[in-house]
Amino acid sequence: MTSGNEAIETAAARAESTRDRNLPQFDDLPIPADTANLRQGANLNDACLALLPLVGVWRGEGEINYPTIDGPVRFAQQLTIAHDGRPFLYHEARSWLLDAEGNVIRAAARETGWWRPRADDTIELLLAHSSGIVELFYGTPRNQTSWELATDAVVRTASAKDVTGAHRLYGLINNGDLGYVEERAMVGQPMQPHVSAQLRRVVG
Fold first, then answer.
1. Closest CA to 55 of 17, 4, 90
2. Could you give the CA distance from residue 58 to residue 81 in angstroms, rounded to a whole number?
3. Residue 61 gets which letter from DSSP?
4. Measuring CA to CA, which residue among 107, 100, 82 is closest to residue 92?
5. By CB atoms within 10 Å of each CB, which of 94, 149, 159, 178 scores lowest?
6. Gap between the Cα atoms of 127 and 15, Å rounded
7. Torsion angle of the four alpha carbons 127, 173, 78, 15, in this order, in degrees rounded to the nearest 10
8. Cα 40 from Cα 136, distance rounded (Å)
């Protein structure tokens, strides 16, 4: 088991290449800019302290699988979780498909939204997907470094895929990476595993 001092030293070593990086910003806004680096910009709102480990820019790879696709399909992703000092976090994920050798095939899913922690430890996560789906998740921290959420409502445009529910689990794993898994019920299929990924911190 890693001691507290070892964990701090490991985190400091990981931060050597990320601590001075942040989101590209215009410097002439009359309001606080978003920051994905807790060392820069506005102070994190106390309401968001339970989500503090999520703040950053993360990149990595994962797999998509479902009975209705010829999978598993390999993908890469950049996930940005940032804040402007108010009691919510900004969320943006951009993905692209990869071939077996790791070459980029094409751009894939995009989602954007907001993490909204509440005083009772409930977390609201609102996500809008480029595929025409809007989802409202509710959840709670499982501990200091993992969070579990499930949809309470799903709204679809007329052209969107038939999605009826989703469940997500995010967590920091031993080496400081961010891992997540998603289950999804869609196109007539029951809730089951759909996406998993492991992302490493590149900012923050």
1. 90
2. 8
3. E
4. 82
5. 159
6. 29
7. 120
8. 30
Backbone phi, psi, residue 14, to 5°:
-65, -35
- The whole-angstrom separation of Cα 88 and Cα 173 is 24
Tens of pLDDT, residue by residue over 57-81, are 999 999 999 999 998 999 999 999 9
Report whether 147 contacts 159 (CB < 8 A): no
DSSP single-letter state for residue 69: S
CA dihedral 147, 202, 77, 43 (to 10 degrees): 50
Q: What is the pLDDT of residues 46-62, one digit of tens each?
A: 999 999 999 999 999 99
CA distance 123 to 175: 25
> Coil, strand or helix: which one is 44?
coil
Contact 137, 149 (CB under 8 A): yes
Burial of 83 (0-12, 13-18, 19+ CB in 10 A): buried
Residue positions counted in the chain:
204
